[in-house]
Write a structure and sequence with these properties.
The protein is α/β, with parallel strands linked by helices and 327 residues long. It has twelve helices and 14 strands. It has a seven-stranded mixed sheet, sandwiched between helices. The N and C termini lie far apart (44 Å).
């Protein structure tokens, strides 16, 4: 076991992927000489060269379009989008080309492209640096959408994403980059929990709390606080946002009878709404209360001085827990 930050775990996972497959390459703004604005790719260009860790122009549509062409020629590109709000210029390439090609070709053509996106708030930045656009991609058929929550998962998840023959949108919780965890670098991606399977990070019997990315830590805090009041909360890290692991989710909700979904993105038409609908459809007769959602407000991301008010916190999650028990 090695204790490293989430950022370092991703760096080690990318390094392992570059070592294992000469067709893997990394491309993006400032990923080479600078090592990325969050230093996720630090040292990789020095060790693997400028042809495999490529500094690109500031043109997200060009980055993803080039990656699509490289994937058609047999490469496995990993694109870094510097901040969540910068992905929109590439949206047309992702939705119209990347997500469609395998289906369009009846499976004969694969596009094994990974698009890494630091997402969410909590770092004192402005709106285009603090967004949660995951629902836009989870809604798009043909994409795998995943989100890591800590270093132990990030190390293997990034390698699994790169090995996937489907395009993967890989969300990284930027406010957790500097938090440390123990990772086992001897674990092979093939032996780790599959990329599309949720993980139960805290067992419980009274309520299921579903979270992903930066909200998993908040969920664990809520479970600890609720335990002091005699309530047992099961916390599930979704990990895969599309496809959803409804087997794990439904099994937990049928056992607990209550469900709360927490994410940073606004609740309006968010991923929590989809999860709530599917849990209601599959677990209706087991539910003791409506499925409740906790999320950001339906406004653009606020100035940094107000972000702590905007971001869902322990109190807002516990409030939803109280309401679920109130039925």
């Amino acid at each position: 076991m090695t204790t490293v930050t989430l950022a370092r775990a991703l760096n080690e996972g990318l390094r392992r992927a570059l070592e294992d497959d000469p067709k893997v390459l990394i491309m993006g703004e400032d990923v080479g000489k600078l090592g990325g604005v969050f230093r996720i790719t630090d040292g990789l260009q020095k060790d693997f060269g400028e042809s495999r860790v490529v500094d690109t122009p500031l043109a997200e549509s060009g980055i993803v379009g080039t990656a699509i062409g490289l994937a058609l020629r047999g490469y496995r590109p990993v694109c870094e989008i510097q901040f969540d709000g910068f992905v929109y210029p590439a949206f047309n390439q992702i939705v119209s080309q990347l997500a469609k090609m395998r289906y369009r070709s009846r499976g004969h053509v694969t596009l094994p492209v990974v698009i890494r996106i630091p997402f969410g708030g909590g770092i004192g930045a402005v709106e285009h640096h603090s967004e949660s656009p995951e629902a836009l991609f989870a809604h798009t058929a043909g994409l795998r959408v995943v989100a890591c929550s800590g270093g132990a998962d990030a190390f293997t998840m990034i390698q699994q994403a790169i090995r996937s023959d489907d395009p993967v949108i890989f969300f990284e919780p930027k406010r957790r980059y500097w938090e440390k965890a123990d990772i086992d670098t001897s674990v092979s991606p093939a032996d780790a929990l599959p990329l599309d399977v949720a993980r139960t990070v805290a067992a419980g019997s009274d309520l299921t709390l579903l979270a992903y990315g930066p909200m998993v830590k908040v969920g664990l805090g809520a479970a600890a606080a609720a335990r002091e009041e005699g309530r047992s909360i099961e916390v599930i890290d979704l990990r895969s946002l599309s496809p959803l692991d409804m087997t794990t989710i439904a099994a937990s909700v049928r056992r607990t009878g209550r469900c709360v979904v927490a994410h940073e993105a606004p609740t309006s038409s968010g991923l929590g709404a989809e999860i709530a609908a599917r849990v209601t459809e599959e677990c209706f007769y087991a539910l003791e209360a409506p499925v409740l959602r906790v999320g950001g407000f339906p406004t653009p991301y606020p100035p940094s001085r107000l972000e702590e008010h905007y971001l869902p916190d322990l109190d807002r999650v516990l409030d939803a827990v109280d309401r679920a028990f109130g039925y």
